[in-house]
Specification:
Layout: H1 13-22, E1 26-30, H2 34-43, E2 47-50, H3 54-57, H4 69-80, E3 87-91, H5 101-114, E4 119-123, H6 129-137, E5 142-147, H7 153-156, H8 166-182, E6 186-190, H9 194-203, E7 208-211, E8 219-222, H10 224-227, H11 245-261
Parallel strand pairs: 1-2, 1-8, 2-3, 3-4, 4-5, 5-6, 6-7, 7-8
Helix pairs in contact: 2-4, 5-6, 6-8, 8-9
Length: 272
């Protein structure tokens, strides 16, 4: 049994809790545009994340840090127009919630007011607990993000896995419990050892969604361009290429160029 079979007509925070209780894995992918979102939704994806990863795969930046609130809202508006069933969650970009609890609250409210999103996602644990509580107390669903946190990449110095030391593993588990207590409805766990992700998933009642965190989370998420093989140069261990769209696009463009040069396109039937 899967949620894509039509068991859940519209995915909500309640749906996620039911899926965890029933042992139904949550499927999640990123999207930043209308057409992709429509295709993902029609295929039965449970969660669409408008990730600040758009800074990497859409804008071509080395990190997610340059992404702005206006850009996240712009892309979210496009995404939600293509979605009827999946839950849409939006990354709050760097410096949109770190300055103060009130600033985080205002920006989360702006996202919900200006888009049709179902909630927001924040990176961090104990240090953002007050912001998470204030946002959720206002009725805005919050997804947490622990483990490797891309917005803190300069602090880490690399994208290596987190939670490999006992001290850091204990901190990640503590952050998960704090986020749950603060009102988060689910957690993304990124690039941690699978046994740690299992421990976290069993310790919290809310669903966990892994990326590079093994099989024991309540769901899995990937960046769509990675999964579809558009970004073939990026191949960490946790990415599976379900297609090789980069090659398919290259072949199609080359054929189009040849047809134009040979005057095979447009044909008489393709002309007015």
């Amino acid at each position: 049994m899967s949620s894509s079979s039509g068991q859940f007509r519209k995915v909500t925070t309640k749906t996620f809790m039911l899926m965890k209780e029933k042992g139904i894995k949550i499927s999640a992918l990123t999207s930043y545009d209308f057409l992709t979102s429509k295709l993902l939704d029609q295929a039965g994806i449970d969660l669409i994340l408008v990730g600040d990863s758009l800074g990497n795969v859409f804008q071509g930046n080395e990190t997610t840090l340059p992404v702005t609130m206006d850009e996240m809202i712009y892309h979210t508006k496009a995404v939600t127009r293509g979605v009827a069933r999946a839950m849409v969650i939006v990354d709050m970009p760097f410096m949109s919630y770190q300055l103060s609890t009130d600033e985080a609250f205002r920006n989360a409210g702006r996202i919900m007011k200006e888009t049709a999103a179902g909630g927001v996602k924040l990176e961090g644990g104990k240090r953002i607990a007050d912001a998470v509580k204030k946002i959720t107390d206002a009725g805005i669903p919050v997804m947490g993000h622990i483990g490797l946190m891309p917005q803190s990449i300069h602090q880490y110095g690399s994208y290596k896995e987190r939670g490999t030391t006992q001290e850091e593993a204990d901190e990640i588990l503590s952050d998960a419990l704090i986020l749950e207590q603060s009102g988060a409805f689910s957690l993304v766990i990124e690039k941690v050892p699978s046994l740690l992700a299992k421990k976290v998933s069993e310790a919290v009642k809310i669903p966990t969604i892994g990326i590079g965190a093994g099989q024991n989370c309540d769901g899995q998420i990937l960046v769509s361009s990675d999964m579809l093989g558009l970004n073939i140069e990026f191949k960490p261990r946790f990415v599976r290429h379900y297609l090789n769209l980069a090659k398919d696009i290259d072949n199609a463009v080359r054929k189009f160029i040849v047809d134009v040069k040979k005057q095979d396109f447009p044909s008489e039937k393709e002309s007015y």
